[in-house]
Amino acid sequence: MRICLVIPTNRFDRYFIQVPLDVLTAAGRLRADGHTVTVWDQRLQDAPPDGEAPDLLVVSTAIADRAQCYPLDLDPVRAAVDRARQHFPTARTMAVGPHGTQLPGATLIELAVDHVAVGEADSATVHGVRGLEAGITAPVLYADLPTAGTALTVVGNSPRPYPNLDPDEWAMPAYDLVPLERYTAEVIVDGIPQPGPCGMVLAARGCTYGCTFCHLPFGARMRPQSVDRVLAEVDAQQRGGLEFLFFLDYVFGITKGFYGEICDRLKGRGIGWMGQTRAEIVLKSDVRQWAEAGCQGMWLGAESPSVAGTGVHKRVTERQIRDAVLKLKDAGIAPFAFVLLGLPDDDACMSDWLVDWAADIPAWFGINQLFLRPGTPLYDQLAAGLNGGTPPASWEEVREVTRRYRERYPADLDDQERRLTALPNFLANALAVAG
Question: Which of 27, 31, 279, 408 qualifies as a FRET site for 314, CA 20 to 30 Å off?
Answer without folding.
Answer: 408
